[in-house]
Amino acid sequence: MNPAIRPCSFSIVSLVSMKKTLLLSNHYEGIPLEILTKAVGDRFRLLVLDRADREELLRMVPEADYLLVSGRLQIDREVIEKAGRLRMVQRTGVGLDNMDLACLKEKGIPLFVNRGVNAISVAEHTLMLMLGTLKRAYAVNLQMRQGVWKKQATGLTTHELSGKTIGIIGAGSIGQAVIKLLSGFQVDILYYDPYRLPSEKEEELGITYMDLEDLLAQADLVSLHCAYDPEKGYVIAERELSLMKDGAVLINTARGRLVKEAALITALESGKLSACGIDTFEEEPPAGVSRLASYDQVLLSPHVAGVSYEAFSRMMELAADNIALFDQGKTEEIKGNRIV
Topology of 12-117+308-338 in CATH? Predict the structure, then answer.
């Protein structure tokens, strides 16, 4: 053998084993897994949980160099301390209610979110729920499927979006996307956010700032687009519902724990609320069939507002790209927002 030609000491297996490990804190299969696998490519060794439960996460997290956080499993101190190789955490979206931020900061582990990546998807779903509740889409569709034809009697129970006053709680990227979609419907838009927008932005969007109580009292439809703060708890409970107009509509595509469901059901039964559109629930998934499903003036969806095919693909691509940029030391090129 020519001494200048030596067999390579690295097998394909050893080259693969040199790749850093990216662990998804959820179980994907089918199309979601195909999208994630394509987004990651051959840049990392991709692991997903065999089942989406805490025990499985605790078993697998010691292998993770990078953690892609999806779903509702808690990334708490126990999980973080078991992740001895962990270099960085990337959220697929923006929610932080399942993250131990203090522990991540203490351990010096950066956390990035994909702010605004699914804003259009959530905004479109919100608009669908607004129109669907006003037009009583569920009840009308059910009548047709049962062979019931009551044109005037049914039609006169529906309402137009045009001319209504809309209250937006939370004017971040999703709230503003909803506002922009509403701009063609000839509605008045009020908003509340703990961090008021600059006056020039309010003028550009055509919106009026109000404190929460005044907004609730004046809005025909109230739509939630704010984060959940466990220290503050519910944004909408008995008191807030009592402040709303009789016959108002409530839309929640943000976080289920923003709304006290028992109070919401009472408001529906009393007629205080005429309808609601709910994509997020106080308990997810609900234990069995949600109690809200027994009301035909309610539209329900299983927390899908932000996971349209297009939005999900963007989330996975951006998350995988951010992790790769971090791995290459190109943190200044990361498009996500650093939280910790």
Answer: Rossmann fold (3.40.50)
Q: Is 284 a catalytic residue?
A: yes
Query: In the chain, where are the structural domains located?
Result: 12-117+308-338, 119-300
> How far apart, in whole angstroms, are the C-alpha atoms of residue 41 and residue 216?
48
Q: Which of 62, 14, 225 is nearest to 130 (CA)?
A: 225
3-state secondary structure of 146: coil
Looking at the predicted structure, is the pLDDT value of residue 246 above 70? yes
Look up residue 72 and give its two tokens: 């509702």
Domain 119-300 annotated CATH 1.10.155.10:
no
Nearest to 296, CA basis, from 268, 317, 257: 268
27 included as an active-site residue: no
How far is it, in rounded angstroms, from Cα 334 to Cα 133?
Answer: 40
**136 phi-psi bin (left φ>0, alpha ψ -120 to 50, beta other):** left
Which residue among 203, 238, 269, 284 is the active-site one?
284
pLDDT, mean of residues 182-196:
97
Whether the per-residue pLDDT at 94 is higher than 60: the answer is: yes
What does pTM read for this prediction? 0.90
- Bridge-based pairing of strands 111-113 and 88-91 is parallel
Q: Encode pLDDT of 47-78 as tens digits.
A: 999 999 999 999 999 999 999 999 889 999 99
Q: Which of 125, 159, 225, 255 is catalytic?
A: 255
Give the tokens for residue 53: 């439960």
Is 70 exceeded by the pLDDT of residue 16?
Answer: no
Q: What local confidence, expressed as pLDDT, does residue 128 receive?
A: 98
Q: Within the chain, where are the H helices?
A: 12-17, 30-40, 54-60, 77-82, 101-107, 119-134, 137-145, 151-155, 173-182, 199-205, 212-218, 238-243, 261-270, 309-327
> What is the maximal distance between C-alpha atoms in the chain?
93
**Predicted confidence band at 9 (pLDDT cuts at 50, 70, 90)?**
very low
* 239-265: b (≥16 Cβ within 10 Å) or e: ebbeebbeebbbbbbbbbbbbbbebbb
